[in-house]
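Input record, target 12 of the design panel.
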């Protein structure tokens, strides 16, 4: 069982850029300890032979055919550009 002390809770709050008053540190330390204990419990679960999954429902992602094309649609592509000049994307100068 992992126990987070008040100094560690204060340091975590500082690193997370969260303003935590001193009177709220004990509750934060307790919550962090509970999270760590839960993570330790998850580490004890036997997952041997369990395949990784991307969803709880079995489904395959839709895929398109991976075919090389010549593009040949610059007008269509540049139609979404905020600023296009002479067939190219125009971007502001960022380096002097």
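The sequence produced for target 12 reads:
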């Amino acid at each position: 069982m992992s126990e987070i002390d008040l100094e560690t809770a204060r340091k975590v709050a500082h690193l997370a850029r969260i303003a935590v008053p001193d009177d709220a540190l004990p509750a934060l330390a307790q919550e962090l300890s509970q999270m760590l204990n839960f993570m330790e419990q998850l580490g004890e679960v036997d997952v041997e032979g369990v395949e990784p999954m991307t969803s709880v429902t079995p489904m395959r992602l839709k895929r398109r055919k991976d075919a090389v094309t010549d593009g040949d649609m610059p007008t269509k592509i540049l139609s979404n550009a905020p600023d296009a000049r002479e067939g190219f994307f125009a971007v502001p100068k960022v380096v002097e």
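The first strand starts at residue 84 and ends at 85.
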